[in-house]
Design brief:
alpha+beta, five-stranded mixed beta sheet, 9 helices, 54% helix, globular
Length: 208
Amino acid sequence: NVICLKAKQSVKQIYLDHLRAYRTIPNALFQGFPLDSSLYQQDIRHAIEKTINKHGLREWKAIALTSEMRESLGIHAITGAKMGIRALEYFHISPGDMSVTSLAGTTPPLSFMNDGLQVASGSSSGDGNFMVSDKNVMPRARFQYKGQTIEMKLKSNYYQTIQNELDHIRANHAFLSEAYHKELRKKALFYWEKWSRKELFQIREMNQ
């Protein structure tokens, strides 16, 4: 009984250590991720606290870094970041621990999902654990960890909403004009705050 109890305690400790490691958000350069509202653009300051409270610091960091890398805010890039974070949650792992194959292709704007996926998941083409496929292009990706594979797909109603928004912006503003970018940024900020990664995606286990 004593041996059994110690074994249970050991398993419990391993599990807790695993979850604790997942919750840790490592920084390569920052001692802590910048959250001072004065460091952000005016139009996002009001949303910082409530967005982090709703979706967590890990997602905030991923989308912020994705946007800085791209020097713009985009709905598909944000969706990709949310998908990457959701996959980490599914496996209870840390960034860089899984292999990712994006099926978002290489043609914008859908391919902007790849930027968010790489930043959020910590998987990268440089490390050899991030790949992009141009076959059957859709807003989806496959994630593999220790022999387990899942496919995650943006639900059709959300994808249609994005398509409708982009069509509306193109119809009302000259492509890539200042007004175009301003309206796209406004919509991206809205969906960043409002859309929950727990509701956005269909998840299918592929090795049952």
